[in-house]
Specification:
heterodimer; A: mainly alpha; 8 strands; disordered C terminus; B: mainly alpha; 2 strands
Chain lengths: 442, 342
């Protein structure tokens, strides 16, 4: 395996792994806080059990997210030393703030996990909320750093030198807001559907129905709200990308030729050599409208981008279609769920609705991975858009392929162990939490 | 001005990582060296002691790394390139250790898997600080060579030498020593307490032996360690004070005090770092046939250093009180438990 490809694969693998754990680690605390709130307010022991059960999940995911994040802070240098040497001082601001947020999250988690019965109940509840808030802040800050790679700002690049560095302008670059909103909503939707799906399955199996129903309702509500907001944020992001990174937009839409009244390409298989898309459905004028807000405006195609600066098309286009398709599916399911809550209460007890949620369990996370693929592959061949090429940033050390194999083996086995642990947690729910009366007494 | 704030935070986070994260590694190292009949008691004591704080203890490494890549990007990138392999192994240790610790605590079913988690936890608790020591030694040993392109001399001999191996062993021994001293105060029964005191004696001897090994290895590899430490007043004083405080520590332990021994153990490790660091400051990476990379000549531009300094200062306002309250709460709690047992 070529060292450059190996380095990119290892980075993709590490981030692809970390993104799942950090999403869950940042969103679950909010579910937990709602359940905890319900327990403190209503005294329903199911909520106390649920909070405890979820907090174990949070501990497992937080720890795995924390170590994979620690690894990433080194891996950036191990794989892309040239990039970090120049970019570190410019886009380091969000990372230094993220250090604080992450630290606070770890402290608050210590209070929360080990604080049962030791502190005032509302202080204990508050520490759980702090875990969620600081996790969310960490996520937004890391995304701001990634946004800088898409939309470099806060420095002048003259004759290969990076001068006039302004870390605050680098942090609040043009892409940070749209990316932060999109990623945060994605984290809530993905985690919400994943959690709701698991509990829906348990309800279908008639296991601890009271417990799992409460869990399902909290997760499903978060998921549904985030999922219906996501298309708005997606539209904001698309217009942003069209303005800042026309090459990325062209790649994700498989838009080879610059044209007015540009068509939106749905599905299809891009043929990069022939510069066309086979088997696609085209909606005339729609791409112009989505990218620029009117049906006539010209949309830059890949033909306007120098060949050496063109991103690949096949992967970003397919990943983008996958993300949007799954996103729309989640919107539809959310619509049904809202209808069920407001008008059709009987649907909430129906098996088909639960089955739909079970089917949607992985949808959000697949969409997260796909969306992240779009933003990273769509930025190629650049690591800092328009400034530094990914190939120029890679480490001079040969043999990265072996490091990639090692990381693959470690992350695959870790994923298996985490799945195994979650399976055991869920299997143990009856034994650990099925005696509400006793637990209340305790 | 702000550059010294940033440098202070860097030194502090490295020191705190060694003291707090190190004690945490030590907990696992003690498991490795504990006979199986005592193992579960020791494990419970340690698990109880580090449970609430262990995540926070490892944050210092992240703070140090972030300061390096934001504030001293050239140092970070040179370490990343030339010490790639030991860093990689250290990361594997961090992954294995962090996950094994949480998995064994949160696995809903306590069965054979526990033995696997324990084994992985204990082994990675030794491997990680060993490679941290290797990296620290390699940064100073002067085997990093920018001119060579040969794989072995650029990426392997930069860290594979007797001095680095000896410092790795010494780091492991120090971690074990810290953990054994800390654990005396965590013991809930008189039997446990005597056990941990014996453990501390063993660990002190091992640390001493490992320290001797470091001097021997330095001699073999031609590293002027003796001069670094005894070539100036500060280094010599630091080592003398650390040695004297060993006697005070033994007295304090015999008196049954718990806080003073911990402070003294922390003081000794701090003095060792000071003795080495003082001679080198501001150099951070000693380079073969070339200009050393120092904390003063490899800095990020001023605007970045200012922003980083403020971020660290403001961050501390949030972190330090919360961290203090975390340690305080669970320490107080541990004492209540201890009294209840007596």
């Amino acid at each position: 395996m070529d060292d450059f490809i190996a380095a990119r694969s290892q980075m993709a693998l590490s981030l692809g792994f970390h993104i799942i754990f950090s999403c869950i680690g940042m969103v679950m605390p909010f579910f937990m806080a709602v359940s905890h709130f319900q327990w403190l307010r209503s005294g329903d022991p199911n909520y106390k059990n649920l909070t405890k059960a979820w907090s174990k999940g949070v501990a497992i995911f937080f720890a795995t997210g924390a170590v994979s994040g620690t690894v990433l802070s080194f891996e950036l240098g191990l794989l892309w030393p040239k990039f970090m040497e120049h970019a570190g001082p410019i886009f380091g601001m969000p990372f230094s703030l993220e250090g604080t947020a992450f630290f606070i999250e770890a402290i608050a988690l210590g209070f929360f996990l080990y604080g049962w019965g030791r502190f005032h109940p509302w202080f204990h509840w508050f520490t759980g909320v702090v875990v969620g808030l600081s996790g969310l802040a960490s996520g937004i800050l890391v995304v701001a750093a990634n946004a800088w790679m898409n939309s470099p700002a806060g420095f002048d690049y003259v004759n290969g030198q990076y001068t006039n560095i302004d870390p605050m302008r680098a942090m609040f670059n043009d892409a940070w807001l749209s990316q932060a909103i999109h990623m945060s909503l994605a984290a809530f939707a993905a985690t919400g559907f994943a959690v709701a799906g698991v509990h829906a399955l348990m309800i279908l199996k008639r296991r601890n129905v009271q417990f799992h129903t409460r869990a399902f309702r909290i997760a499903a509500l978060f998921a549904a709200v985030a999922a219906v907001l996501q298309p708005l944020s997606g539209d904001f992001s698309a217009k942003d990308v069209a303005r800042r990174q026309p090459a990325k937009l062209a790649a994700m839409e498989a838009h080879f030729h610059t044209e007015k009244r540009a068509s939106l390409v749905l599905g299809g298989l891009p043929d990069e050599k022939g510069k066309k898309v086979d088997y696609a459905v085209k909606i005339p004028g729609m791409l112009s409208f989505l990218a620029h807000g009117n049906f006539e405006q010209e949309v830059t195609g890949l033909d306007k981008i120098p060949v050496a600066d063109q991103p690949p098309v096949l992967v970003p286009h397919l990943a983008f279609q996958l993300m949007v398709g799954l996103g729309m599916g989640m919107v539809a399911l959310s619509g049904i769920y809202f209808l069920a809550i407001w008008r059709k209460k009987q649907w909430l007890r129906s098996e088909w609705l639960l089955k739909l949620f079970v089917a949607a369990t992985p949808a959000g996370f697949i969409a997260v991975e796909a969306g992240w693929t779009v933003t990273e592959v769509g930025r190629q061949p650049w690591i800092i858009n328009g400034v530094m090429r990914t190939a120029d940033a890679v480490t001079p050390m040969p043999g990265i392929a072996y490091s990639f194999y090692l990381f693959s083996a470690v992350y695959v086995s870790l994923s298996l162990v985490v799945i195994f642990l979650l399976y055991r947690q869920i299997k143990m729910v009856p034994e650990l939490y099925d005696r509400p009366a006793q637990l209340v007494a305790a | 001005m702000m550059q010294y704030v940033v440098i202070t935070y860097l030194c502090l986070s490295i020191l705190l990582y060694l003291l707090l994260g190190g004690a945490d590694f030590g907990a696992g190292i003690m498991e490795l060296f504990t006979r199986s009949k005592n193992r579960s008691a020791a494990r419970q004591t340690m698990s109880h002691a580090i449970g609430p704080i262990w995540e926070a203890n490892h944050m210092w490494l992240i703070i140090a790394v972030v300061i390096l890549f934001v504030g001293f990007p050239r140092i970070y990138s040179v370490m990343s390139v030339y010490l790639h392999i030991p860093l990689l192994v250290m990361l594997m240790g961090i992954i294995a250790r962090g996950t094994a610790f949480v998995f064994r605590h949160y696995d809903a079913v306590k069965d054979q898997m526990q033995r696997l988690y324990n084994r992985i936890f204990a082994l990675s608790s030794a491997i990680t600080p060993f490679f941290l020591g290797v990296i620290a030694a390699s940064v100073l040993a002067g085997n990093i060579n920018f001119e060579t392109t040969d794989f072995l001399s650029a990426y392997v001999y930069s860290w594979l030498h007797w001095f680095a191996v000896a410092v790795g062993v010494f780091t492991v021994a120090l971690c074990g020593y810290l953990a054994s001293v800390y654990s005396i105060g965590e013991a809930h029964t008189e039997v446990d307490k005597r056990y941990f005191i014996r453990k501390t004696r063993t660990m002190t001897l091992i640390a001493f032996a490992a320290g001797g090994l470091v001097f021997l290895a330095a001699h073999i590899d031609g590293v002027p360690l003796w001069q670094w430490i005894f070539g100036n007043v500060i280094g010599t004083t630091a080592v003398v004070l650390a040695t004297i405080s060993l006697g005070v520590l033994a007295y304090a332990v015999n008196q049954g005090w718990t806080i003073l021994p911990r402070l003294l153990a922390g003081f000794q490790v701090t003095m060792i770092l000071l003795a080495i660091g003082y001679w080198h400051f501001p150099d951070f990476i000693v380079v073969q046939n070339g200009a050393n990379l120092s904390l003063l000549n490899s800095q990020a531009p001023l605007a970045t250093i200012n922003a980083l300094g403020w971020a660290l200062l403001i961050g501390s306002l949030f972190i330090l009180p919360a961290l203090y309250y975390l340690y305080y709460s669970f320490q107080r709690d541990a004492e209540e438990v201890a009294e209840a047992v007596h």
